[in-house]
From TrEMBL:
Essential cofactor(s): Mg(2+)
GO molecular function: intramolecular phosphotransferase activity; metal ion binding
Similarity field: Belongs to the phosphohexose mutase family.
GO biological process, one term: carbohydrate metabolic process
Full protein name: Phosphomannomutase
Record-linked Pfam families: PGM_PMM_I, PGM_PMM_II, PGM_PMM_III, PGM_PMM_IV
UniProt keyword annotations, A-Z: Isomerase, Magnesium, Metal-binding, Phosphoprotein
InterPro entries: A-D-PHexomutase_a/b/a-I (IPR005844), A-D-PHexomutase_a/b/a-I/II/III (IPR016055), A-D-PHexomutase_a/b/a-II (IPR005845), A-D-PHexomutase_a/b/a-III (IPR005846), A-D-PHexomutase_C (IPR005843), A-D-PHexomutase_C_sf (IPR036900), Alpha-D-phosphohexomutase_SF (IPR005841)
Domain Alpha-D-phosphohexomutase alpha/beta/alpha: 6-133, 155-258, 267-372
Lineage start: Bacteria, Bacillati, Actinomycetota, Actinomycetes, Propionibacteriales
Residues in Alpha-D-phosphohexomutase C-terminal domain copies: 377-447
């Protein structure tokens, strides 16, 4: 079973549990063979990982069987965060497949793919995989592949620490909310205790990986899912908090007051550091990222490239422009030193180094990078997404410049409104930014009045 709805813009993702599953083990088997055939992997090796989702063992096992039957070897890194799988692909020079549904509820599962060096696949390749998988299993190859297991967690943690200098930082207390996702697996390796470790005390929340998500959904884009970490910062007098999504490739950051630091401000903050280290470099942002990022990049002598929302689009732009860094409004952060791939923990280490090497609290450091009022991402279910986007375009006609680079964006001198279909969920997403809170609220309400009419 492989219903067409599971093939998204950037990956495969759909319901695997309950009365109306959208894909199953037979579908996973078909996907494995399709990947081998489309990527020409016969006689080669694929690296594979999975997150903590309950359906992960059975789906990934079926996928592996197909890959082996099709004549391809598998290096299985076991349970891993998505950025740990990117590390494995990059360090081993192998194409990769990661079983995860990121922030989606526990009934979902999916697969993210990459070429060797964690390079993204493109939409045409994903369409080719979908077509081949939907046509049925690939016939077995004359010579079956072999599967080996490999633990890369220690090497992953060592690589992150090689990129950020935490020597000599002041003692820090950090709340880390893993949301019962894969950050609970990676955090102990990245923040060890004992002699020689950085003086970072981690207050862990929900660090036991559990695909049923018993405490709160592992989706930090939803403000309610940040409440526990915000409260814990205040309770423990922490310097900041880190909140991860299910596969731990995203990281939201909360300051010492328990206030959320916008991912755009984090992007600007890290971009400034990276441009000071690599003058004249390029920074990639998506269409929803605050204008403050481009302003900061220009002030530090860099160039900004804007792309569509989604990790495959950003990673492709990172490679095309040899960008030093990239950031998205959803708290995905990309680094040239990490094969152009996204890693929430590396972004967190950069922020910890900045805070730890100075005396100022995070709120003070971030203040200079927050120059606009933002609505945050507002989701609405609509019957006809395309017609609704057109209706918003008509309502805003004449108020600013419009483009269709990613959904619809209408821009004025000091504001913009973007509405776009989700690539992973049945929502229309609205984002608004303006110079003042009042202007943002007015634009937001005008757009919502059309979207929810």
């Amino acid at each position: 079973m492989l219903k067409p709805v599971i093939f998204k813009a950037n990956d495969v993702r759909g319901i695997t549990e309950g009365d109306a599953p959208e894909w199953d083990e037979a579908g996973a088997y078909a996907l494995g063979g399709a990947l081998v055939e489309v990527f020409g992997l016969v006689g080669r090796t694929l690296v594979l990982g999975r997150d903590m989702r309950l359906s992960g063992p059975r789906l990934s096992a079926a996928f592996v069987e197909a890959v082996l039957d099709a004549g391809t070897d598998v290096v299985d890194v076991g349970m891993a965060s998505t950025d740990e799988l990117w590390f494995a692909s990059g360090s081993l020079g192998l194409p990769g497949a990661m079983f995860t549904a990121s922030h989606n509820p526990g009934v979902y599962n999916g697969v993210k793919f990459c070429h060797p060096g964690a390079r993204p696949i493109d939409s045409a390749e994903l369409v080719a995989i979908a077509r081949r998988a939907s046509a049925g299993p690939v016939p077995p190859a004359p010579l079956r592949g072999t599967r080996t297991e490999r633990d890369v967690l220690g090497a992953y943690a060592a690589h992150l620490h090689s990129l950020v200098d935490l020597k000599g930082i002041r003692p820090l207390k950090v709340v880390a909310d893993a949301g019962n996702g894969m950050a609970g697996h990676t955090l102990p390796a990245v923040f060890p205790t004992g002699p020689g470790a950085a003086p970072i005390e981690v207050v862990g929340l929900y660090t036991t990986p559990d695909g049923s998500f018993p405490n709160h959904p592992a989706n930090p884009l939803v403000p309610e899912n940040l409440l526990d970490a915000r409260a814990a910062v205040r309770e423990h007098g922490a310097d900041l908090a880190l909140v991860f999504d299910g596969d731990a490739d995203r990281c939201f950051i909360i300051d010492e007051r328990g206030e959320v630091v916008s991912p755009s401000a984090v992007t600007a903050l890290i971009a400034a550091q990276e441009l000071d280290r690599h003058p004249g470099s390029t920074v990639v942002v998506n269409k929803i990222t605050s204008r403050s990022v481009a302003e900061v990049v220009a002030e530090h002598g860099g160039t900004t490239v804007v792309t569509k929302v989604g990790h495959t689009f950003v990673k492709a732009a990172m490679a095309e422009h040899d960008a030093v860094f990239g950031g998205e409004h959803s708290a995905h952060y990309y680094f040239r030193e990490f094969w152009g791939a996204d890693t929430g923990l590396l972004a967190a280490l950069h922020v910890l180094a900045l805070v730890g090497h100075g005396d100022a609290p995070l709120s003070e450091l971030a203040a200079g990078y927050t120059r606009y009022a933002a609505s945050g991402e507002i989701n609405s279910e609509v019957a006809d997404q395309a017609a609704t986007v057109d209706a918003v375009a008509a309502a805003f006609a004449g108020r600013g410049e419009a483009d269709r680079v990613d959904g619809l964006t209408v821009s004025g001198p000091d504001w913009w409104v973007n509405v776009r279909p989700s690539g992973t969920e049945p929502f229309l997403r609205l984002n608004v930014e303006a110079r003042t809170e009042e202007a943002m609220a007015a634009l937001r309400d005008d757009a919502l009045a059309v979207i929810r009419a």
